[in-house]
Specification:
The complex is a heterodimer of chains A (369) and B (353). Chain A is an alpha+beta fold. Chain A has one domain: Orthogonal Bundle (Cytochrome-c3 Hydrogenase, chain B). Chain A has 14 helices and eight strands. Chain A has a three-stranded antiparallel beta sheet with strand order 1-2-3. Chain A has a three-stranded antiparallel beta sheet with strand order 6-7-8. Chain A is globular, with a radius of gyration of 21 Å. With 353 residues, chain B is mainly α. Chain B is built from 14 helices and no strands. In chain B, 44% of the residues are buried. Classes of the chains: A alpha+beta (369), B mainly alpha (353). Chain A binds chain B through residues 9, 11, 17-19, 33, 120-127, 129-131, 134, 190-191, 194, 196-197, 199-200, 349-352, 354, and chain B through 62, 65-68, 162-163, 166, 237-238, 240-241, 244-249, 314-323.
């Protein structure tokens, strides 16, 4: 009998696949069940957001950028407004800054709750998805109460926020913070100690801190690898230096740590929101902005800590009402580029790849712009 | 009404119908053929209804575990939702892909469906309520339920799709691996029952403490290992790797649509009921129980096990394919064989009741 010969073959995972979270196509080279190589093909969701922004006034850019990373649309609003304000050297009222921080942190929690649900679902536990979305609903209701929108908010504007919060926002928000804080231990109870969950997550998809930095990876993925890098602390923007919170950090850089870091971050965000609600001052919510907002010519790069890492906008102005160039940066793009490096040649199975992809928390609209 | 129900033993109805046929003056061969035909149609109807009920129930359980309602729109708590779904699937276009292996692709769902029903020939639904009390009952059931694996492998191969092939291969590997601990657990029971006949097995556990799950210390171990292996045999979470949605999209049934898909789907739920029914017969005293009619006891116990398996599905993450194999060969097989040896030794030494 001749020697058994096996050959590698290629599998298209995506563009339509339940666990690529959008329309990402991963071209897998497989050796049986083992993943030999993975090549991400991006661009299926390209909407040329950056180019569209060049033909819009600054105010019109913000709803376009809502679609840039729709899971945390608040931070997309914020980062663009911040860039425009920096160009125009504008002062923002204190109440607006507080509201922005509250909204940003609520949005970060909402994003991490989605992460919790989808990751559990990708690993095969279908129930936590519903639990995660149930608590997210509280936050989405708060957003709806404030700006009428549930996903793409267009709330944070150049010079402040679009409108003040309604009267019942603060008590409702406190209640939501309390509920989420209580439910968080439930979430941990469902999955953290589950032997199957641990077997699926621990030691899978190890990231190397040095290489991750070299690939431009940031956010929870980097923090799970033991790098204490959080722009809210390292390069403080808005009024984050007024609040007392810790940077969630873990050291192993595997899927399990990436999952834990995000749960810890929810806790820290709740802490920030509570402090912000306590210290919320009275006053205006928007600085005086001319109807034709024209920042002086120049260029600026601002960056903030988004739930998926560093989110930045490079804004070039020629002094007209429209930006000359808007270059966006998001965490997911770099993480997706780093994905082949940690999968290639490690002998991971297709199920591990799904877990790694899920814990990187990649969102495709942000990758494809 | 409850009184009537309690005094009602289904077997009496069958006896009455059988007698009626004989009185008509037909030749005995005809009477036999007609009665078997009626039983066949009855079994098919009951099981198809049961599968529809289980689909609905699974959705309700899933809903309540996930703090939602599940189907609510069609009838009381959506009771005819699955019937509507089945009718929808019947009407659907049977998408015929070009690259498939025609023969294998067509016969895979049929084989899967038939194999799921075959086991019911010798499952005792109640006292005297069994189609044929074969003297090799449990062996026969183990043999025919394995046909499902061939069907899934056929589906995986015939679809000519890489995901489907993954699903088919996984299903074959999984079913063959878990067959071993499953049979070893069953052997523990057979040693004490002294028979392979399902009726004899039930009759050998005539009181609550006679149930095999209560026979210390090997009974509970055999029961737990059987339930684990049975979950894997029925391809259910956390062992549902053949159709792992998040990895293989839908696994072996990715290319199937319409009624062919429905056949796989119904067969899956009938298999779920089969493994639960075997668990009840072997470990929980089958139809034995006070006050209520025997078939009702059997049904209640079986649905209890089904509920347990459903709770597994909606609370656990899925195992990885290599972890699944490791669990079978490195943990379940040694445990079940050690348990088997323990039970055999105790039987030999007479340390049992």
């Amino acid at each position: 009998m001749g020697k058994l010969r096996t050959e590698e073959f290629q599998v298209n995972m995506g563009p339509q696949h339940p666990s690529t979270h959008g329309v990402c196509r991963l071209l897998l080279t497989m050796d049986g069940e083992k993943v030999v190589d993975v090549v991400p093909h991006v661009g299926y969701l390209h909407r040329s957001i950056e180019k569209i922004c060049e033909n819009r006034t600054y105010a019109m850019c913000i709803p376009v950028l809502d679609r840039f990373e729709y899971v945390t649309a608040m931070s997309c609003n914020y980062v663009f407004a911040l860039a425009a304000e920096k160009l125009a050297e504008m002062e923002v009222p204190e109440r607006a800054e507080y509201l922005r921080v509250i909204m940003l942190e609520l949005n970060r929690i909402a994003s991490h709750l989605i992460f919790y649900g989808t990751t559990a679902m990708d690993v095969g536990a279908l129930t936590p998805f519903l639990y995660g979305l149930r608590e997210r609903e509280l936050i989405v209701d708060l957003f709806e109460m404030t700006c009428g929108q549930r996903l793409t908010y267009n709330y944070i504007r150049v010079g402040g926020v679009s409108r003040d919060i309604p009267k019942e926002f603060v008590p409702k928000c406190r209640e939501a913070v309390k509920i989420i804080g209580e439910k968080l231990s439930d979430y941990e109870g469902i999955l953290n100690e589950n032997p199957i969950w641990i077997a699926r997550m621990k030691g899978i998809g190890l990231t190397d801190p040095q290489k991750a930095i070299a690939w431009g990876v940031s956010g929870p993925v980097l923090r799970a690898a033991g790098v204490k890098h959080d722009l809210r602390k390292d390069d403080p923007y808005s009024i984050y230096n007024k609040f007392d919170f810790d940077v969630a950090i873990r050291w192993n850089g595997d899927c399990y740590d990436r999952y834990l870091v995000r749960l810890d971050e929810i806790r820290q965000s709740l802490k920030i929101i509570t402090q912000a609600l306590d210290g919320l001052p009275e006053g205006d919510v928007r600085a005086k902005v001319k109807a034709k907002f024209k920042p002086p010519a120049g260029e600026v790069y601002v960056r903030i800590e988004n739930s998926r890492g560093e989110m930045g906008v490079h804004l070039v102005s020629d002094g007209s009402t429209k930006p000359l160039r808007v270059k966006t940066r998001g965490g997911s793009f770099n993480q997706l580029q780093y994905l082949p490096e940690i999968v290639r040649g490690k002998g991971y199975l297709i199920a591990d790849l799904v877990a790694i992809f899920a814990t990187f928390d990649i969102i495709l609209p942000e990758v494809d712009r | 009404m409850p009184l009537v129900l309690m005094s009602l033993e289904l077997i009496e109805i069958f006896r009455w119908a059988y007698g009626l046929l004989a009185e008509l003056g037909l030749p005995p061969v005809w009477v036999m053929l007609i009665s078997y035909g009626v039983i066949g149609v009855l079994m098919f109807g009951v099981l198809a209804l049961l599968a529809l009920f289980l689909v609905w129930w699974e959705r309700k359980v899933a809903g309540h575990v996930q703090q939602r309602f599940g189907p609510m729109r069609n009838g009381w708590h959506g009771w005819y939702q699955t019937i509507a779904d089945a009718i929808k699937l019947l009407q659907k276009e049977d998408v015929d892909i070009i690259a498939r292996d025609k023969f294998v692709f067509f016969w895979a769902p049929v084989l899967c469906f038939v194999a799921a029903f075959l086991a019911y020939i010798c499952i005792p639904f109640g006292k005297d309520l069994i189609v044929a009390d074969l003297n090799i009952g449990i062996l026969y059931i183990m043999a025919v339920t394995t046909f499902t694996v061939i069907a899934l492998l056929m589906a995986g191969w015939g679809s000519n799709n890489k995901y489907a092939l993954f699903g088919g291969m996984r299903s074959a590997a999984q079913a063959i691996s878990y067959e071993v601990p499953m049979v070893a657990s069953i052997l523990t029971v057979i040693i004490y029952a002294g028979s392979l006949s399902m009726v004899d097995i039930v009759q050998s556990q005539n009181s609550f403490f006679g149930w095999f799950i209560c026979r210390m210390p090997f009974g509970p171990i055999a029961f737990v290992t059987y339930i684990i292996a049975a979950t894997a045999e029925a391809n259910r979470a956390p062992f549902d790797i053949p159709e792992a949605e998040q990895e293989l999209v839908a696994g072996f049934n990715i290319e199937y649509s319409g009624m062919k898909f429905a056949m796989f789907f119904l067969a899956e739920f009938i298999n779920l009921f089969t493994v639960s029914a075997i668990a009840v017969t072997l470990f929980l005293g089958g139809w034995e129980g006070p006050w209520l009619p025997s078939w009702l006891w059997f049904l209640l116990k079986t649905l209890g096990i089904v509920f347990l398996l459903m709770m597994f599905r909606w609370t656990y993450p899925r195992l990885r394919v290599d972890q699944l194999m490791e669990f079978a060969w490195k943990f379940l097989v040694p445990v079940t064989f050690a348990n088997l040896i323990l039970a055999a030794t105790m039987k030999y030494l007479g340390w049992y009741w």
